[in-house]
Amino acid sequence: MAATDRRLLFLLAASLAVAAVSSHNITDILDGYPEYSLYNSYLSQTKVCDEINSRSTVTCLVLTNGAMSSLVSNLSLADIKNALRLLTLLDYYDTKKLHSLSDGSELTTTLYQTTGDASGNMGHVNITNLRGGKVGFASAAPGSKFQATYTKSVKQEPYNLSVLEVSDPITFPGLFDSPSAASTNLTALLEKAGCKQFARLIVSSGVMKMYQAAMDKALTLFAPNDDAFQAKGLPDLSKLTSAELVTLLQYHALPQYAPKASLKTIKGHIQTLASTGAGKYDLSVVTKGDDVSMDTGMDKSRVASTVLDDTPTVIHTVDSVLLPPELFGGAPSPAPAPGPASDVPAASPAPEGSSPAPSPKAAGKKKKKGKSPSHSPPAPPADTPDMSPADAPAGEEAADKAEKKNGATAAATSVAATVASAAALLAASFL
Prior knowledge:
Residues 329-413 are annotated as: Disordered. This protein is of the alpha+beta class. Among the domains are: 24-164, FAS1 domain (Roll), CATH 2.30.180; 184-316, FAS1 domain (Roll), CATH 2.30.180. Helix content is 31%, strand content 18%. A seven-stranded mixed beta sheet has the order 2-1-7-6-5-4-3. Strands 9-8-14-13-12-11-10 form a seven-stranded mixed beta sheet, covered by helices on one side. It starts with a helix and ends with a helix.
């Protein structure tokens, strides 16, 4: 009996391993449907595809090229992103479920509700069975008209992903009022987000101009909040030279557009604006559930909130100052991150010829050389709305360690496939 139980547990573990490495990919699915190519293109441009792929249960209401053309004609990418989020339902709906709604109508949560930008329940969608067998979709705003109606079923992966075609987008007044990077005063935005000290540093050092120059191409900024600069054990930043301070501030920015959902998909090391060809001043990402942290090699800093998301620019706040080991000692420099040479910034003011500064001492306390700064204060609770389903499980720290050791992002998938094959052979031997 014990041997039989062990075999069953082995088979269950193999099945779970295979399930863990398999997930839907909305852009790959829509590649097979040219009539939705424009919708699919904007999913990639806005990175909404990463938000969809991170969900274990989701329904995408897709628009044909004609309907999508009418939607995007006079909108910014930030506004298009919100429109796509409102068309993404965080529940599974297929034809049968649409026509058998309890009381003929219900409210459902969308990706837009999870952004925190939705006022009240404006991030919800009303699904109602209309006369003549039609199913309509409308904003939760009182008096909203059912301009979008169900057209046909496109693709289902019960009960994880459903793709349904609708006739028109779902909108409401205020949906297209997203702040844009072009019209935003970056200093004022950071100060309002509680990052006054960081704002002062980037202005006084001249790094603000570097950020602004990068915003047109792609920029992801990690702004430490004011509490981060008061954290116990933080090195004395005033002891840095001007060149070292510039490098530190560049270390807080990526030359790519990476909203939170996209950060979850990144494996290995990420180049920052301070990165060199030798792989110095890189970062890596650690995820746990819905939490995302940036790992410097000395400490981790949690991504707390997003204060601006205007493709190709996104600004996150983080709970602690990102301290590169190249400046503050501790962990050795990371190996060069694999990737095309075009990802490397064309120029970096980081002082290549100068020696790294010794680890500064915390004000008022003696500190042993090489000791890592203390962790940031406890992170605030996640701000995911109560009605939002839980995100799909994110990557484990063990996978990150294995990747750093072996340098192969496909290791987890290969192991799972091997286990699944062995499990299948073992099961067959007992049939």
